[in-house]
Amino acid sequence: MGDILLSYYIAQDLPFDILHEIFELCLPSVDNPPVDHQPNFTLAPLLLCHICVSWRTAALSMASLWRSTTFTLYTTRRHDPPSDRLLLRKTTQFIAWWKKNIGDVAPSLYLPWSSTQPGRRKNLTGLQDVHKALFDSAFFRSAHTLRLVIMNQELDIICSNPVAFPNLSQLRIESIQDSLMPRIEISSFPPSPLLSRIQISHAESFQERTLNIFPWAQLTHLYLPRTMTVGAWKALVQRCTNFKVVAVMLSGADSGGTDGAPVVVNNLRQLVAASNSMRTGIPFTGMLFPNLTAFRLISSFIAGRVRSLDVLEGLLSAMPALKELHLDSALSFTDEEYIPFDQARARSGRCLSTLLPNLQHLVIDFIDPSTDNVAGNIIRFLRSEWLCYGWDPLPQDYSESSPSSSYHRRTLKFIISDSSYVYEEPIPNEIVAEVSTFLHSEVWEDISAPFEVSIHEEELVKPVGRSVFDVFDEDMPSKGWDKAVDFCTPA
Questions:
Q1: Mapping DSSP to helix (H, G, I), strand (E, B) and coil, where does residue 285 land?
Q2: Partners of residue 174 on adjacent β-strands
Q3: Which residues pair with residue 171 across a beta bridge?
Q4: What is the C-alpha separation between 192 and 171, in angstroms, rounded?
Q5: What are phi and psi of 336, to 5 degrees?
Q6: Which InterPro entries would you find in this protein's record (predicted)?
């Protein structure tokens, strides 16, 4: 009993900085969406307020505990079942508790699509009044992060009140498309001087009128997996001169034309772009990305693959500072679609080393594993001057197990899909085996290739019809993709 009391008194007397570290470790891991919705008195940080008076006082004074926790706000109508009304009462009580105990700390808030049964929200009678009371509240407007699963009507309620969001730095809108809901014109988003990251997903195609809603010019991070025209895309990057990390889905339609001076995007560092029209390179025609260091190109459809060396070189020449290039389903190695890299005249300056002299990582992903000579064409690509010419060769003492410390490591990775768009019986294992045999042959050793090359099958359990946006959450080889794409980390 004495040991227990001693431990209790020691815990109460711990220095503030030690308690702070302990409390930070008590916070639940970040889930997306959260598995255990906060506020929850069985989880930190609220749990820490119910241990003893000294821990409660310490926890309430640690602003970082409350800023880094996302709290769920439930909204239901007053005539809904008692269980739903209890959730609304819980939200109201939590807001009052926050004002009394936490004060001016800016919260991180999550508004889910529904409380228990989404179907009940088809009748919106009385619900918009509840939303307006919440959206107009000082508590909601003080948030530093908002994740909202809403429809246009609810976004319009937020925008119709011009009161600013003084602390908002991250905004995530999972807009729900509902055919029963009429299209409405939405006002401009209220002033948000700190807003730098926006994600808008799960809704209808991006409309050019949306350009008038959000304060694009101040954004640094954008995640927009909604089909947008090339005209809207070019208008967006011209307006958003501060972009650093962007993930978008582009259609082949170009409502803005390609005439005139090039569109120069100076600050962009990382770009993920899904496109269905890369045969002609339309989404990037007339654009320059002089400081882009990481680029992932995703082909949305088979017809959207790059099939011309001129198109590929035109694209890469607009991104001379690239260090990481990831081509996801954008190149095909079947006989019908293979680009004749081995016929390019590299010694006249037409090769990868002159286009991307700083390239460190090249990934060619989601290669269709058909029987149509894929392995042979990958080997042709590996032997091509277009790929190999002009680089500093690997040092003689270089090995994959102990790379030279003085050598700037350069990697090339092929990833073979485990299923085919066309063939019912794909052969990914045979392709991997044939290319691997070549990589261990004397012919490959004589080439003195500048890349450390690997090939393996895709670790994928999803069917062929995977969403192209699954890859938006993957890391590049150097793990250079900012976690802002997930919008889970602080700005």
A1: coil
A2: 201
A3: 146, 198
A4: 10
A5: -70, -35
A6: LRR_dom_sf
Between residues 86 and 235, the one the model is more confident about: 235
**Which whole number is the average pLDDT over 373-396?**
85
Which residues make Cβ contacts (< 8 Å) with residue 443, sequence separation at least 6?
A: 383
* Contact assessment for residue 233 and residue 248, using Cβ atoms and an 8 Å cutoff: yes
Do 134 and 98 contact (CB within 8 A), yes or no?
no
Evaluate if residue 178 carries a pLDDT over 70: no
Answer for the pair 69, 45: CB distance below 8 angstroms, yes or no.
Answer: yes
On average, the pLDDT of the chain sits at: 76
CA-closest candidate to residue 108, choices 167, 29, 51: 167
DSSP secondary structure code for residue 217 in this structure: G
In angstroms and rounded to an integer, the radius of gyration of the C-alpha atoms of the chain is 27
| Cα distance between residue 152 and residue 186, in whole Å | 8
> 55-64, 273-282, 431-440: which has the highest mean pLDDT?
431-440
Residue 443, token pair as written in the block: 């012919």
The Cα 166–Cα 141 span in angstroms is: 7
The torsion angle over the Cα atoms of residues 396, 398, 400 and 404, rounded to 10 degrees, is -170
Strand-pair partners of 172: 147, 199
The tokens for 124 are: 């919106």
Cβ-contact 96, 137 below 8 angstroms: no
What is the 8-class DSSP label of residue 249? E
Q: Which of 254, 236, 256 is nearest to 246 (CA)?
A: 236
Distances (CA, A) of 203 to 62, 149, 151, 226, 343: 38, 11, 9, 7, 44
Lowest mean pLDDT among 2-6, 217-221, 415-419: 2-6
Query: What is the number of residues in the chain?
Result: 491
